Amino acid sequence: MWIAGALLCVAAVAGFFYMRHTRNELHAMIGTETLPIPELERLRGISDELGAKGSFRKVAEVVGAAYPRPEGLLTAELSKTECVWFRYEVKRHYETVEYRDGKRHRVKRTENVAGHTSWEGYALIDEQGRTIGVDPNGTKPDAVEQTVSRFEPHNGGGGSVELFGFKLPQFVVGGGSTTIGYDYKEWAIRPGRRLYILGEVHDRIGPLVVGKPENGGHYLISTRTEQELRDDRVKRHRFLAVGVIAGALIGIVLIVADVLT
Q: Cβ neighbours of residue 222 under 8 Å, at least 6 residues apart?
């Protein structure tokens, strides 16, 4: 019983740190101003006049429509969707044999066998056609479109596996276990999709770019509005607060009860 109690206490501690992170994100959104691109350009101009060209830094919220980089649109790996950003993952579901207490058990497991997040930059464009660059920096955007969600059973044949024009390496097939199938998921941001970004605007490469703060801080890219994100963080914080308190109390009770008995 004390083991269950200890696990609940550990979960409560993890939940506390996630709750604090959620609160900090909410405070960052509340405390950061949404600035139009012309205003950011004006502030960068002042920085240049003061002799700090290339050193402009400003934490801000930026809103606009996704716009492709000068080299053109990307093509998502699985769905072949034209986009400015994409991410995909492929998971293998398999069944393997384990021996416990002298008995043979068949256990279902999952492993990641492939995945990629696009690193190429793109831009936001405002209603007047002005743009600001976006450095994705490996960040997973919030609430983006899922372009692929499909499970494909394994046919049991030998050789490599290919779906959506994507060939899995042969070493993931077999390996002393029975492959059940492959789960394919992909997400993408199409051009024209309206985005909210909280990050640091800088001019390190010349043009203004919004990216992850250089000295730490929150970096959010979302298809939701700022108000929708704030409401989500408030609800999440309340839910986590209840879960942390309940988990800690129940965990302590279970540990104490086990010690007393």
A: 141, 142, 143, 195, 196, 197, 229
